[in-house]
Amino acid sequence: MKVICDRSALADAVNIVGGVVATRSPSPVLLCVKLTAKDGRLILEGTDLEVGLRLGVDQVDVQEEGVALVPADKLSQIVRASDDSTLTLETEDHAMHIRGEDSHFKVFGFDPSEAPAVRDFEGLEVNTELECGVFKTLISRTLFAAAAEHSRYAINGVLFDRDGRKLRLIATDGRRLALAKGTCVSGEGTVRTIIPVKALTLINKIIDDPEATVKIAIDESQILFKVGDGPDSAVLSSNLVEGAFPPFEDVIPKDQDKRVSFEAGVLSSAIRRAALLTNEESKGVRLSFNEHKLTLTSRAPEMGEAEIQIDLKDYSGDPVEIGFNPGFITDALKVVGNNDVIIELKASNKPGVIKIGTDFTYVIMPVNLQ
Amino acid sequence: MNQPRTILHVDMDAFFAAVEQRDHPELRGKPVLIGHDGPRGVVATASYEARKFGCHSAQPIVIAKRRCPEAIIVPPNGKAYRQASKQVFEIFERFTPLVQPLSIDEAFLDVTGSLRLHGSAETIAQEIRRLITDETQLTGSVGIAPNKFLAKIASDLDKPDGLTIIQPDQVEAFLHELPIGKIPGVGPATERKFHHLGITTIGQTRSLDLDVLQQQFGSSAQRYWELSRGIDERQVVSDGEAKSISHEQTFGVDVAEPDEIRRVMLGQTEQVAWRLRKYDLHARTLTLKIRYGDFETITRSTTLQSPSNHTDDLWTSAKGLFDTWIAKEGFKPVRLIGVTATQFDQTPQMGLFEDENRDKQSAVEQATDTIVEKFGKHAIRRAGAIPRDNEPRP
Q1: B23 pLDDT higher than 60
Q2: Contact check, Cβ <8 Å, A284/B343
Q3: Which of A153, A282, A368 sits opposite B353 (nearest CB)?
């Protein structure tokens, strides 16, 4: 194989595929990226056996078709460190030569036939099709709330819940829950399945053209995404998370009787400032609402105290005082864009809700203030 | 500079022995050693009659018996001591909420805020001593000083049944006379180092620059420098504000049975969890302390999945640490085992999906806590923490 590549396009692709392959494994081929030069494009493949990715790069000149299997981290380091506008990749047995204007690297690789298979989208039935922009919004509004690990429920993933063309993504870590709604281009019947955090993180990175569409196929144990249609399209396959998602609908409050709206930026700034005087022992920020204003207070033992006030225009309901982990609020405010948010509350020991219209609902359990 | 404080250190006199002599008139006036009589037994407390012979606490029973062959050895009766301790601490709390227990028979009291209500520090100290004698028929010695370091040294100066006051203007003269070995943490080796520098009293340390102290004593230098000037800013912290809650036990002989140790650990974990719940604290970290027969001591810590004061959660962590220790490092007979909870979360996060089992567990714990408060800690406990029949109950 011999391919002349646009360095920056190659760097982006290697970086993304490098995020898929295992970081540590007794099997060296799992640490590798497979490169296939064919039909005028270069295809990069990587997998950790849970998630697999196939990424096309079309800014290449294929001079000789062929296949290579090389360690992802070394390839990525070399491509990133180079200043050249193009790099030439050429194989010699299982080694790869990477040549720039003033450089020549020879990297030892492995027999490409040993590379674990990465699935392609060919021949699969499209279950759902939606705009990349919509999908990206839904992912960014939920993914942050998913659990890193949890024993009782399958919440180390995001619930994909589609009914006809209506799609909901739901994520929770047991203390807060994010639900985002959107509309698909096409979709029949219903689907409910849990997608691992890693797969959605990768999809979020791959989607760069909001106008493009993403096609989704689901079979027994895997979900596959195809982003774009051209020679630079990407196919991501992932195992599904097994187990039961918690009964999330039961914990979304329906009888909140206190309500107020905020400019996201104003609330975010106040929370971040109040959080300056919290610490590991005392993580909570106290929010005291009344008709006219919101007072945020915090106290870190042996450090000090903070108080921030915001005037309220449209508070309705009785005064209430409630404590929240400030990070849980700012996490949500980061992903709502320039929208105004509505906060709904009930009591100091009941969940609070942050909303943008009906498209985004975020439920947070309070902390116990003493 | 903080405003001047008035700190009391109250130390009960030969506490365990005094309780036994109170409850058993036949022991009065006789040398008494509290401890388990056996090859590895250690003196917990020696009565003043036994101290004349050179017996003291932490001494192997075997040695103490050589010094005083007629000493009467009494096994510890924890229940009686705890009962007496509770009475004494209740007396302290009549004078100030700032009571920091150092052990079952010793505490710091910050009475700075109580002076207007109760009169001078000396009046408070005399009143505490009178109430202790009236209500428990025991005696305690009190030190009064502007800080903890000096108060603790003062209480020891006129034992038993004494009262020593160090006024702020007496601190300098007092330190000038105080042997260097009286600084807590200064053992024979450090003492020799000071002597080598020509220093025999704490006050003399003032003549040394901080640089010189740092060269000689490293990280302890700052503290010596401050103590030599009578500076000790450590606050009196009551149990509710404590940074850690722990229970540990030294065995009479090294224990070679992992299950035996697990049983003791479960009892300790129950105690720690109970104290956490009493103050509504949730711990994030659990630490296991293991001492081998050769006194080598190791600690192993783990972070809980989320802060908790449930016995089950703490026990899962404690057992996990113990089993990992065995699996990784191999079991060795254990001289001391202890369980410590730290990293308290004062604003515990509520959960969205509190499951039914957890609620039931909380209800069970509330019920058992009530029983423990009423009838003592052995009234109800997990079956796994109950000693086997052939052993003495703790």
Answers
A1: yes
A2: no
A3: A153
The full set of domains in chain A, from first to last, is 2-114 (3.10.150.10), 128-161+184-246 (3.10.150.10), 252-364 (3.10.150.10)
Q: Tell me whether residues A281 and B349 touch, CB distance under 8 A.
A: no
pLDDT tens-digit readout, B121-143: 999 999 999 999 999 999 999 99
> What is the three-state SS of A94-160?
CEEEEECCCCEEEEECCCHHHCCCCCCCCCCCCCEEEEHHHHHHHHHHHHHHCCCCCCCCCCCEEEE
Instruction: Kindly state whether B347 is in contact with chain A, defined as any CB-CB distance less than 8 angstroms.
Output: yes
pLDDT at B100: 86
The alpha carbon of residue B291 is apart from the nearest alpha carbon of chain A, in Å, by 30
Interface confidence, given as ipTM, is: 0.77
Helices (H), chain B: 15-23, 48-51, 61-67, 78-93, 115-118, 121-136, 148-155, 171-177, 188-196, 210-217, 221-228, 258-278, 311-329, 356-375
Q: In which order are the strands placed within the sheet that holds A95-99?
A: A60-64, A2-6, A86-92, A95-99, A104-108
Whole-angstrom CA distances from A14 to A21, A45, A67, A108, A348 are 11, 9, 15, 17, 49
Looking at the structure, do residues B156 and B180 belong to the same domain, yes or no?
Answer: no
B295 close contact with A: CB closer than 8 A: no
Number of structural domains, chain B? 3
Query: For this structure, is B90 an active site residue?
Result: no
Each of the 370 residues of chain A gets a pLDDT tens digit; together they read 999 999 999 999 999 999 999 888 888 899 999 999 999 999 999 999 999 999 999 999 999 999 999 999 999 999 999 999 999 999 999 999 999 999 999 999 999 999 999 999 988 999 999 999 999 999 999 999 998 766 667 888 999 999 999 999 999 998 999 999 999 999 899 999 999 999 999 999 999 888 899 999 998 889 999 998 888 899 999 999 988 899 999 999 999 999 999 999 999 999 999 999 988 777 899 999 999 999 999 988 778 999 999 999 999 999 999 999 999 999 999 999 888 999 999 999 999 999 998 999 999 999 987 6
Nearest to A251 among B280, B347, B352 (CB): B352
DSSP string for A6-25: EHHHHHHHHHHHHTTS-SS-
pLDDT, tens digit, 9 for 90 and up, residues B30-82: 999 998 887 777 788 999 999 999 998 878 888 899 999 999 999 988 778 88
Specify whether B261 is located in the same domain as B361: yes
Catalytic residue among B106, B122, B233, B356: B106
β-pairing, B140-145 vs B163-165, is: parallel
- Which CATH number do you get for residue B129? 3.30.70.270
A143 Cα distance to chain centroid:
5
Tell me, yes or no, whether B345 and B366 share the same domain: yes
Which pLDDT score, from 0 to 100, does residue B366 have? 64
What does R_g of chain B's alpha carbons equal in angstroms?
23
Chain B CB contacts of A347 below 8 Å? none
CA B341-B346-B348 angle, to 5 degrees, is 95
Residue of B nearest to A172 (CA): B352
β-pairing, B334-345 vs B282-292, is: antiparallel
CA of A324 to nearest chain B CA: how many angstroms apart?
8
Residue span of the structural domain in which B61 resides: 1-166
Measured CA to CA, the distance from residue A83 to residue B269 in angstroms comes to: 61
**Chain A residues inside the 8 Å CB shell of B349:** 175, 283, 325, 365, 367-368
